[in-house]
Amino acid sequence: MLKYVVCAGSQAEAQAWARLHGIPQRQCVYASSVRRIEGLRDFAVVRLRGFFGRPNRDEIEACLRRNELKRHSPLVDIQGDGG
């Protein structure tokens, strides 16, 4: 299931964004720390204004980039030979 990684200044800001857009809380992950988002594979990132002032912003951005690299490849075997 797709998760929304909400990068915000506070959990209240992240929850308000989810309510405004009609997204269930179970689909949202507030990026409060690297530990909360490490290893996610199927996700979309939302960056709210408050996030840009966070002291751990660079750590969270780096973690998101690592997660992007670990996603399953969207490549498809167009020849059908498994190669």
Describe the structure concisely for a colleague.
The chain has helices at 11-20, 34-37, 57-70, and strands spanning 3-7, 28-30, 43-47. It is 34% helix and 16% strand.
- List unreliable stretches of 5+ residues: none
User: Strand-and-helix sequence, N→C?
Assistant: EHEHEH
Estimated structural class: alpha/beta
User: How big is the Rg?
Assistant: 15 Å
> Which percent bin holds the helix content?
25-40%
SSE diagram, text form:
Elements lengths: L2 E5 L3 H10 L7 E3 L3 H4 L5 E5 L9 H14 L13
Parallel strand pairs: 1-2, 1-3
Structural key phrases:
3-stranded parallel β-sheet; 34% helix; globular; 83 residues; single chain; alpha/beta
Describe the 3D structure.
The protein is of the alpha/beta class and 83 residues long. It has one domain (3-70). It is built from 3 helices and 3 strands. It has helices at residues 11-20, 34-37, 57-70, and strands at 3-7, 28-30, 43-47. The protein has a 3-stranded parallel β-sheet, with helices on one face. The longest helix has 14 residues, at 57-70. The model has no long low-confidence stretch (mean pLDDT 90).
